[in-house]
Design goal:
By secondary structure, this protein is mainly α. The chain has one domain (about 25-185): Four Helix Bundle (Hemerythrin (Met), subunit A) (Up-down Bundle), CATH 1.20.120. About 60% of the residues lie in helices and about 10% in strands. The chain is built from seven helices and five strands; from the N terminus they run E-E-H-H-H-E-H-H-E-E-H-H. The protein has a three-stranded mixed sheet with strand order 3-4-5. Strands 1-2 form a two-stranded antiparallel sheet. The longest helix is centred in the first third of the chain and has 27 residues, at about 10-35. The protein starts with a strand and ends with a helix.
Amino acid sequence: MVTIYNEIRTFESLSQIGMNTLTKASSKIIDQLTGLVVSFTDEQYTRELPVLMNNSIGKHYRHIIEFYGVMLAGLDTGRVNYDKRKHDKKLEQNLSTCIKELKRLKDRFFDPIWQEPLELSGSYSMDSNDVFSVSTNAERELLYNIEHAVHHMAIIRIAVLHEFPELDLDDEFGYATSTLKYLRKE
């Protein structure tokens, strides 16, 4: 038993509270990404920008989308390997494909997510193809994807402010919740 908010809850209900919080946070991220991407022209979305080391904003969108996609697919298979993402050029080059995939991801966040353990695998050596695996779970991977998305959104934010200052950018876009809380206290 764990005491939260002066109530006694089981680990199962605590886990559900955590998943609801993380699902809402991921949904908000997808809403922010969608809110910005609909304001880009095709040229803005695909332009290679010096501030992004000659990568495009579209590549960062693809990267975020594919990480979430790998995690969600892992809920079905029990295995997550972010190295196995598709690198789908359509996601980074076509606005409508990106928007459709963001909607599909958001819809998946509200599927029942089971609490079975997951296995996270990846290759971490340039000298071999050895795969390293650890135990994980849906909450941990959703949390990782939130942090990963915010990191890339911060990079996108820099690019938008530098290259496309005329675009309307959500004040919270690219900021972690902890940073926003800190800024509100100042």
